[in-house]
Design a protein that fits this description.
The chain is an alpha+beta fold. The protein is 29% helix and 30% strand. The chain folds into 4 domains: 145 residues, 2-Layer Sandwich (Nucleotidyltransferase, domain 5); 114 residues, Alpha-Beta Complex (Ribosomal Protein L22, Chain A); 156 residues, Glucose Oxidase, domain 1 (3-Layer(bba) Sandwich); 179 residues, ATPase, nucleotide binding domain (Nucleotidyltransferase, domain 5). The chain has a 6-stranded mixed β-sheet with strand order 10-9-8-7-11-12. Strand 21 and strand 22 form a beta hairpin. The C terminus is likely disordered. Bound molecules: adenosine-5'-diphosphate (ADP) and magnesium ion.
Length: 624
């Protein structure tokens, strides 16, 4: 008599099923697998919908009916869920009317111009002694502007640059007899102070400015002493990488680069304690986390951004998992330095500065898992749907199941370490030759990478960020070819869609999607890769250190990567590169020889069930 069983792994993001039939002699045949999005938070009754869907799909794929199903094996979901928060810790404020860092799409002319700001009406009457920069108000026609500047230059006025409100810089530049740098799209032109000395710089296409982004360049132009140079150095820093900029020097105008008092984190370890200021950055925070580990809980300083951040994570996890606030503990914390574009307070043209921020991912441990309730709900739901004889059992520690599943990868053997790269957490487990297992769960995984990409590119669109994370980039250079990010060219027979032309595109499975931002391909690529490194390389090393015998990575021989992020086109190679110096062989798993890095926990549940039933060594693996 066969038993038809299905192992179901409810993850933070994905619910996976592995369907098998078991012979009375204990041999297993895997007959189906399926995955769906997890419904609700892992470990809560809302999971039922996803479980039912995934089980039914697995049955469908195997040509079986719900009524055939004898047993559903649910994982004893480690009651850990993850939360995310991000806070900026610096801000740039412009006081009075210094203007910085404006980077319009299409500045005109090129070069550096220094002079006193004169408004457009007074241009004709300007004296010929001092160099001037002309300020052109909203609505002035480009032809009128160009004619007036040409006339002034002819009569001997030394016009060295122009600041425009309209988006006309190129049109004006093309009509001038003498080439000057022109900045446009200055939306609040009324705030630019007339009579002050200013500098306008425009670099050639594909270049960035040299003088205004250099503190000593500013000192030279404005005749600053060492103290004043110190004060303006944030201006130079904010302008780095721009193609164009204006700096106006007003007597008391200033740009402040200040650190927001972010507050501190209190780390409570099993035996040690630490307090660390969040503005000290990720490296310091993580050093303290490691020092006090294992972590028991984390508190944020009340009344500060950090306090609010930690309280939010805790509260949302308490709400979602239906636990009392006091029962929610933070068992791991990953801090990451990031830089996010933010509009500068006090700016005149929507100037943006990259502000430093810290992202925190927290792993929350609740008192108990809600899997019993989930199992009951699954039973009644599926019985009602026609699975008349089905039983639901909860069992197995997730990490142990993951190793059992990973061991179905061809070419693997004990001792073995698995790294499960999921959506919310990075989980690691080790199985030694004597079957002893150990596991660890770390905060931060695929969702954090997506969030970093979203924030650092200023997208405010998680779907787009997810696409950028998963796909290589290209640039449509003509209607018939794209340049791929590795420098090679791909040609097409049919013209590319006009929406893709001259754009950076994400090369997905279903075709190419233009990325609607001004960022260059190189910048998007750099953000994408460093986000993956900051999350997964850091977490892989942390995880391996915590389960390696004696904390020594050299004691680990083989690492198998599992989970959704092991499907990524570059994460596995980034991790493999990072662990190679320790002599570790690292590759992506192929569960059951067919499922790739997916389905390990679900298949492990079946394998462990079989082992618990049959007294003899069970035969695990697909039967031909
Ligand atoms: P969990 O076990 O927490 O439910 P998963 O193992 O399903 O999580 O992994 C989810 C993560 O994997 C998400 O961050 C998702 O972006 C990522 N992911 C899923 N499929 C792919 C893919 N084909 N390429 C890259 N990343 C992927
Ligand atoms: Mg998982």
């Amino acid at each position: 008599m066969f038993r038809t069983v299905v192992g179901v792994d409810i993850g933070n993001s994905t619910t996976e099923s592995s369907l098998a039939t078991i012979d009375p002699d204990g041999s297993v045949e895997y007959v189906g697998a399926a995955l769906t999005r997890t419904t609700g938070i892992k470990g809560t009754v809302k999971n039922v919908e996803g479980v039912a869907k995934s089980v039914m799909r697995a049955l469908e794929g195997a040509g079986m009916a719900l009524a055939d199903l004898d047993l559903i094996l649910l994982n004893e979901a480690t009651p850990v869920i993850s939360g995310l928060a991000m806070e900026t810790i610096t801000e740039t404020i412009i006081t009075e009317s210094t203007m910085i860092g404006h980077d319009p799409r299409t500045p005109g002319g090129r070069g550096l111009g220094v002079g006193t700001i004169v408004d457009f009406e007074s241009l004709a009457e300007s004296d010929t002694e001092t160099p001037i920069i002309v300020l052109v108000p909203r609505g002035t026609d480009f032809d009128v502007t160009a004619k007036a500047i040409n006339a002034a230059v002819e009569s001997g006025v030394d016009v060295t640059g122009a600041i425009l409100c309209n988006d006309d810089a190129v049109l004006v530049a093309n009509r001038l007899n003498v080439k000057i740098p022109i900045i446009d799209e200055v939306s609040r032109i009324d705030l630019v102070p007339v009579g002050m000395v200013a500098a306008v710089e425009v670099a050639g296409p594909g270049q960035s400015i040299r003088t205004l982004s250099n503190a000593y360049g500013l000192a030279t132009i404005f005749g600053l002493d060492p103290d004043q140079t110190k004060v303006v150095s944030p201006v130079a820093r904010a302008l780095t990488g721009n193609r164009s900029a204006v700096v106006v020097r007003t007597p008391s105008g200033d740009v402040e680069d200040r650190t927001i008092p972010a507050g501190s984190l209190e780390l409570q370890g099993e035996t040690k304690k630490a307090k660390v200021d969040v503005s000290r950055g990720a490296a310091d925070i993580m050093a303290e986390v490691q020092r006090v580990s294992p972590l028991v809980d984390v508190m944020g300083e009340a009344g500060t951004n950090t306090g609010g951040m930690i309280a939010n994570v805790r509260q949302s996890m308490a709400d979602l998992s239906n636990h009392a606030l006091a029962d929610v503990r933070i068992g791991d914390l990953l801090a990451i330095d990031t830089a996010v574009p933010q509009e500068v307070r006090g700016g005149m043209a929507g100037e943006v500065a990259l502000e430093n921020a810290v992202a925190l991912a927290a792993m929350v441990r609740t008192k108990e898992s809600g899997m019993k309730a989930v199992a009951e709900a699954v039973t009644s739901h599926l019985r009602a749907a026609g699975a008349t004889k089905v039983d639901v059992a909860v069992g197995g520690v997730e990490a142990e199941m993951a190793v059992l599943g990973a061991l179905t990868t061809p070419g693997t053997d004990k001792p073995l370490v698995v790294l499960d790269l999921g959506g919310g957490s990075t989980d690691a487990a080790v199985i030694e030759t004597n079957d002893h297992t150990d596991a660890t769960h770390l905060a931060g995984a695929g969702d954090l990478v997506t969030k970093l990409i979203d924030a650092e590119l200023g997208l405010d669109n998680l779907e787009l960020a997810e696409e950028i994370k998963r796909c290589p980039l290209g640039k449509a250079e003509s209607f018939f070819h794209i340049r791929l990010e590795n420098g090679t060219v791909q040609f097409f027979e049919k013209p590319l869609p006009p929406t893709a032309f001259a754009r950076v595109v994400a090369l997905g499975e279903t075709g190419m999607n233009p990325i609607p931002t001004r960022h260059s391909l190189d910048r998007i690529r750099a953000v994408r890769r460093t986000a993956k490194e900051r999350v997964f390389v850091v977490n892989a090393l942390r995880a391996l250190r915590s389960i390696a015998p004696g904390g020594d990575l050299r004691q680990i021989g083989f690492v198998v990567l599992l989970g959704g992020c092991a499907l990524d086109f570059e994460i596995p190679e980034l991790i493999a590169d990072a662990v190679a110096p320790f002599g570790i062989v690292c590759g992506t798993g192929n569960v059951r020889g067919t499922e790739g890095p997916r389905n390990a926990v679900a298949s492990g549940l079946v394998a462990s069930y079989v082992a618990s039933q049959a007294p003899a060594e069970p035969q695990v693996g697909a039967r031909a």
